[in-house]
């Protein structure tokens, strides 16, 4: 898992590995940077996988998915410490809509053609790492881990991000112990740029964060 509101790559101790990288909410390391462009609102990927822009109408399905996957997400995601209320998910979804319009964050949900509307993961492009760059965050539901969803979606979002005006770098960050999440950028040809010390905020985190980078 990575940092994203529902999937990105964060940190862990002897917790079960899972595909997740900080996918919102997360405290920005810098003020969010805006881009004048916008990525596609719908991305259709092989195997019937779809990424679509997260909107307020999706809040109930997202809330159900997060609540059903709390044990899966808790080791890596600070925000999974307790079940979100429907009102809280709706509030965050509205904030995501505003961020999309502002050009600082672009939040997506994943579903499958054979189960439309059922959230199987959440992904985001986040302008929280400084100018000229976006960070991909993500998580995938426990029953869909191992199907290549995170890799396919992160690959599509990498291309979408680097096509945006002013964006020259994409990063995926995950905890050193989260091998499943680290496998995503490795498969996509990202380079491991550095290992940094970071405060451990979730039970599985070690405090050593891998920073993977891909540039134009």
Could you explain the architecture of this structure?
The chain is an alpha+beta fold and 216 residues long. Helix content is 25%, strand content 27%. It is built from five helices and ten strands; from the N terminus they run ββββαααβββαβαββ. Strands 1, 2, 3, 4, 5, 6, 7, 8, 9 and 10 form a ten-stranded mixed β-sheet that branches. A hairpin with a 6-residue loop joins strand 6 and strand 7. The radius of gyration is 15 Å and the shape is globular. The two termini are 24 Å apart. About 9% of the residues have low confidence.
User: Radius of gyration, Cα only, in angstroms?
Assistant: 15 Å
Q: List the total number of helices.
A: 5
Distance between the termini: 24 Å
- Number of E strands: 10
Structural class assignment? alpha+beta
Percent in helix: 25-40%
Shape: globular
Concise structural overview:
The chain has 216 residues and is α+β, with helices and mostly antiparallel strands.
């Amino acid at each position: 898992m990575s940092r994203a509101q529902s999937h990105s790559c964060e940190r862990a101790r002897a917790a079960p590995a899972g595909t997740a990288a900080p996918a919102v909410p997360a405290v920005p390391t810098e003020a969010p940077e805006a881009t004048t462009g916008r990525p596609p609102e719908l991305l259709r990927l092989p195997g019937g996988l779809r990424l679509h822009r997260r909107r307020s109408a999706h809040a109930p399905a997202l809330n159900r998915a997060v609540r059903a996957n709390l044990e899966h997400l808790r080791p890596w995601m600070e925000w999974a410490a307790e079940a979100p209320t429907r009102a809280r998910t709706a509030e965050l979804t509205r904030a995501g809509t505003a961020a999309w319009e502002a050009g600082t964050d672009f939040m997506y949900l994943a579903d499958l053609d054979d189960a439309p509307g059922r959230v199987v993961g959440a992904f985001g492009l986040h302008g929280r790492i400084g100018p000229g760059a976006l960070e991909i965050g993500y998580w995938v539901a426990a029953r869909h881990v191992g199907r290549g969803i995170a890799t396919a979606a992160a690959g599509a979002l990498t291309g979408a991000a680097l096509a945006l005006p002013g964006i020259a770098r994409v990063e995926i960050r995950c905890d050193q112990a989260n091998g499943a999440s680290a496998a995503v950028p490795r498969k996509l040809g990202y380079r491991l740029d550095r290992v940094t010390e970071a405060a451990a905020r979730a039970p599985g985190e070690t405090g050593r964060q891998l920073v993977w980078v891909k540039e134009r």
